[in-house]
């Protein structure tokens, strides 16, 4: 049964007058975690676009990268029989919710709009369940990026690092000059975001796949994984003492405000730099985690439509999200790249153009892998098990050998 946004009627002097709600096609209630300045700016592009189509917006923000908090709120809403219209969601979570048979079928919009032909297969793998489109992908992000303050790097005589040793050397130079080398927020999902890149640079693409996607116990317990944890400890030596609990966008602000040299973070960080009026290559640099050039750990934000009965607004929203002009306008602001293969890169800045080229190249060379930290390598239970070990180790709760052991058993228990 349809629960939302019925055209309300007011009896007045024997007539039925349509209320204000009637002039609007319908509202969508949208659950999301886009609460930083850059994210809110991107969200406004979507809100405004829907506004022009007569679709109103009821905002339901739940902060927290990776969407863990948002998913907890969603569970409560669905359990109480009152799901939101549309929910920002990542990878395996989409599949898990689809399996519960509480999501809408978008096949008629998808067919009319030709989504099968333009959405990359890597994204369709998550957007479709049992042959049905259940979500509309709005972007492709990736996690193996570093965002650096160009002025500070120049000042301390550090060049853009190409490999791990050069990264460490740059961080040492920043430290010696009295800057915070690495801006970081100590939250499990942020630690895990760094971990994505460290696994990739340490073991390469095949190792990443074996360990993070196949969850192969041999890879998880290997000497390479031990080295990954050692490198996490090494990076821990470059963050400031106030890092625990800090939000990721406040870490970005430290780089923006010339306090810190770099941040290892997904390309949503670019949204903060742009919002602050900074320019790529002039004020900040974007480069792949040294040693991961040519490889991409991706995650794609998709809007899953929940089953709220026949809904014109849902169809409108799904259609609007996938429109090529919208995909360009939105992703230019968000820091991500389009979720369809036929969008021009003309309006994107240098980092966005690099993101698009990297994605196409990685897709072609089979070096495109799902981000563990952001729900595209393994289901939530495994992701959360990895979060626990990585964050415990990063905070000094165990040494690298203990962490390697704990990772194997935590993942086994979660499968
Ligand atoms: C999402 C991004 C978001 C980031 C930080 C990621 O999981 O994919 O869209 O900007 O979290 O909130």
Automatic annotation (TrEMBL):
Highest taxon, organism lineage: Bacteria
Keywords, sorted A to Z: Signal, Transport
Span of the signal peptide: 1-25
One protein family per Pfam: SBP_bac_1
Main location: periplasm
InterPro entries in alphabetical order: Bact_solute-bd_prot1, SBP
Cellular location(s): Periplasm
Entry keyword Transport: yes
Family: Belongs to the bacterial solute-binding protein 1 family.
Function: Part of a binding-protein-dependent transport system for a sugar.
PANTHER family recorded: ARABINOSE-BINDING PROTEIN-RELATED, BINDING PROTEIN COMPONENT OF ABC SUGAR TRANSPORTER-RELATED
Protein name as it appears in the record: Probable sugar-binding periplasmic protein
Organism: Enterovibrio gelatinilyticus
Lineage: Bacteria, Pseudomonadati, Pseudomonadota, Gammaproteobacteria, Vibrionales
